[in-house]
Amino acid sequence: MVETGGWGGIGHYTFNLCAALAAAGVEVSLLTNRKFELADRPHRFDVDGCFDGNAGYLGNVKALRARLARACPDVVHVQSLISTRFDALLWPLVRRRVPLAMTMHNVASHERLRWDDWTLWRCLAAADAVVVHTRRAADVARQRLGEGARIELIHHGDAGVLQGESRLERAVARARLGLPARARIVLAFGAIRPYKGLDGVIDALAEVRRRHADARLVIAGPVLVGDESQYRDAIRRAGVESVVIFRPGYVPADQVVSYFAAADVAVFNYRDITDSGSLRLACDTGTPVVATAVGSFREFLTDGVTARLVEPGDTPALATALGDVLADGEGAARMASAARALAASAWSWADSAKATVSLYNTIARSDV
Which domains does the chain have, with CATH numbers? Predict the structure, then answer.
């Protein structure tokens, strides 16, 4: 298993999948960053921190090739690339020696960079099988790769290692995070990038506060694209400086669930999306959700049943939906319960591992 970043949603996804595969009897070796965030969590698979941001591209390629030559794996499964600029040459070469599966977590680079998109699809075209998590992603992959490509729809699992054994009480979670005990908290969680529509959430807050004067917006996550100042400027322009708690930094794994437990509602105002680990975390932890009706959100959420869905770019509708959820605690709890039941029934890591093992057996037997 190759996951080069060692942190964030894809890192957490990969840990959960490796754990489920190991439980299913697969011998798994995870090649990841030397600063792998979850290295201290109990696990029954090998973790090799062979990638280093200071080693340069060629240094990391050398490390990868050395591990593959030593291990002689039956299958290599790639979760993230070493470089979105240069890997187009690497993975076709790897595939000559060993069957290759690649997971397509996103159907395009988030910022629609043409070179990055070309590299992504060049790598995917080299794979013996491409794993996707949603029907929409499968349709896009078939259009781009052709009907002859092996596209495997294997669902994204639940919160897994991040969830813990029981849900935190809201008061305890807020105390741990230093959040106001009595406010109604709207949570915007995750890495900050333009496609997530955070500016629209900020603009909606003033309208939400006309109905709920105690509403607060908590923004937690690193600014990956753009500059922190532009979001602080947006907060000032909206006149909500005093009621926004802005924490623009990476949230360690041991704090992630606390943020969702602390929130009255989690908001996902994305312009488009293939899938979102953060949204699945919200569902799995029982936090009510307001999201845009885009991409995979429309595929596994039902408006008024498991979440409130609004059209992207409609700030007044977003404000109304957030205000409605905050006003109807019982209704919000019913939606959150339904979403959590969906996560428990449809997003099992054991089922994902079973489908992944079947895929490995198929491509390992193929003549490549």
Answer: 8-157+348-365 (3.40.50.2000), 163-346 (3.40.50.2000)
